[in-house]
Amino acid sequence: MIPSEKEEEYFARLEYEKRQKIEREKHENLKAAELTKLKKLHFMRCPKCGMELIEIDYKDIKIDKCSECEGIWLDAGEMEAVAKMEKSGMDKFFGVFRKQT
Ligand SMILES: [Zn+2]
């Protein structure tokens, strides 16, 4: 092989690697964009029926209640926090959601 050919091969490979890197980054961005899209679509939406959740902040616990099916959703760690509550505290807590009569 004459030296110049070897050089061409080298630069072609560099070019290929450069483009491959660009494509890979594009794919990564695509994934990130897809995740952002999904998050936007689902954020504060009921996982069951897809309607909007109402977030209530009570004693440092945030509880999301569905405006449609009335399901109650907890963030990570909040289940434990609710479980540690006194019975009276829990009654007050869920009383927030109770329908006024
Ligand atoms: Zn729901």
Could you name the key traits of this structure?
101 residues, alpha+beta, three-stranded antiparallel sheet, 3 helices, 15% strand, binds zinc ion
Summarize the SSE layout with pairings.
Blueprint: H1 3-42, E1 53-58, E2 61-66, E3 72-74, H2 78-83, H3 87-95
Antiparallel strand pairs: 1-2, 2-3
Tell me about this structure.
The structure is a single chain. This protein has 101 residues and is an alpha+beta fold. The protein contains three helices and three strands. It has helices at residues 3-42, 78-83, 87-95; strands spanning 53-58, 61-66, 72-74. A three-stranded antiparallel sheet has the order 1-2-3. A hairpin with a 5-residue loop joins strand 2 and strand 3. It is rod-shaped. The termini are far apart. The protein binds zinc ion. Zinc ion is lined by residues 46, 48-49, 51, 66, 68-69, 71.
**Helical segment count:** 3
Low-confidence stretches: none
The general outline is rod-shaped
Oligomer: single chain
Counting DSSP E segments of at least 2 residues, the number of strands comes to 3
Helical percentage: 40-55%
Largest sheet: 3 strands, antiparallel
Order of helices and strands: HEEEHH
Proportion of residues in extended strands: 5-15%
Mean pLDDT: 88
Computed CA radius of gyration, to the nearest angstrom: 27 Å
End-to-end distance: 92 Å
Name the structural class. alpha+beta
Strand order of the largest sheet: 1-2-3
- Bound ligand species: zinc ion
